[in-house]
Write a structure and sequence with these properties.
globular; DNA-binding; 6-stranded antiparallel sheet; 8 strands; two-stranded antiparallel sheet; homodimer
DNA sequence: ATATCAAGTGGGAAAAAGTGGGAAATTAAA
DNA sequence: TTTAATTTCCCACTTTTTCCCACTTGATAT
């Protein structure tokens, strides 16, 4: 399971090292896509196959209209990139994705169960401050939904 | 069962020793997460598997499509850490969790049935004073809910 | 009173993780 | 075809983490 927060440097060559704790699970190649909220999603190949099947399956339980789904899929697939992890655990973030979330010299790399998220470090901290305050409510809310 | 209160020191390397009474039950690795209220939760691996299953939306690979779920997962998974207990019973508390609850050089380590909580020692004491006064009422209230 | 043991604390040295940069290889441009 | 630019590969440095050993304190036993 991918968990935890790491603040790493993006060097002049756009490289950023993945936390050692993630490397085994991530394997040699990963898929990096624009994510939801101001971050990027990184999936393992295995996870990406699952996700992409679900997204493209018309029989799924998404309440999207078809046109919306097309747009969403363009967003997720059209700007996804397959990226290799180099011999010492670094990846290269394509410029168009870097720009999308305003990555500069520091990034927050976050493990969220079965995906990794990449954030501008400052945006991540701000975001967590907000979530921190709501966490209690969110827990109650999700707790209720699940025990319905 | 994990019970009792211990005040331990956090050293310069962010290490804190677990009370001997907890060690057997806790095993070799634990998961430490931001808790609810101003403390951290420590789960045994076994307990964490249970908890995380409940937290993630199991029957849905695409739980990231729901905003609330994304926020909460980022909070619970993104700021969790798997930590080894060293040969003499200490754990390492990640900086991001230490900062979250304002841990300085002393922590209160509390056994709460099947999890351990970590508090800033002073916050814990204040909190206890308040709870002390409310304990009677709280008991009534919970009693009523459970016997409904 | 002294020795012994267990629990907790502190610190040095080795190992690992993360960062930076040069040179070779590849691609693009002139 | 040569030159310039970009990308890839590899090595080296720095910082952080881990591992191990030793000290302190307080309780118990001799």
């Amino acid at each position: 399971m991918l968990i935890g927060e790491y603040i790493h440097t993006i060097d002049e060559k756009n490289r950023i090292s993945m936390p050692v704790k993630f490397r085994k699970e991530m394997g040699k190649k990963i898929i990096i896509t624009p994510g939801l909220d101001s971050c990027l999603f990184i999936f393992t190949i295995k996870e990406w196959i699952k996700v992409s099947k679900r997204l493209s399956d018309n029989n799924n339980d998404l309440s999207f209209l078809k046109a919306d789904q097309r747009s969403f899929n363009r967003y997720m697939f059209g700007r996804a990139a397959e990226v290799e992890i180099d011999s010492i655990g670094r990846i290269l973030i394509p410029d168009f994705l870097k720009d999308r979330i305003g990555l500069k010299d520091k990034a927050a790399i976050i493990g969220v169960e079965d995906r990794v998220e990449v954030w501008n470090d400052k945006v991540w901290l701000q975001n967590q401050e907000v979530v921190e305050k709501q966490a209690g409510e969110l827990a109650e809310k999700l707790g209720n939904e699940k025990t319905k």
